[in-house]
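Q: Could you fold this chain for me?
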Amino acid sequence: MSEYHNNAKLYPVQGKVPEDAMIVDGYYAMVAEPTGFEEKNLSSCILTIQEKEGGEKHDLLLYEGVSHDITATVGGKIYGFRLHGEIWPTPFQVRFDDSRGEKHPGTGLAMTYESDVTVLDEAGK
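A: Sure. Below is the predicted structure, expressed as structure tokens.
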């Protein structure tokens, strides 16, 4: 998975496309300003699937605003993928404080990832 955005807009390839856009099947996603309401943000990412036999790669653009599966045929089988987020109310909040991570050498894939968070009560303390 790469190019993850917490809030994005999906665009068809028309006219001038930003240089940093990753185009998949005639579409690309770009970062959008957060709405201020987490449940209204629509996330996106690029999912890359690599076949074991032959190493063929399939890039899929997943967008939370699409209500159907995005499919890829791998080894003669059709697989469906969908990006779906949910928010559950909790009696506490979590504050993100810091993160650390390492990637596998020569790739963009995470090897380790750690986050420091603080759990806050309903009063925010």
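A (continued): The two ends are 35 Å apart (CA to CA).
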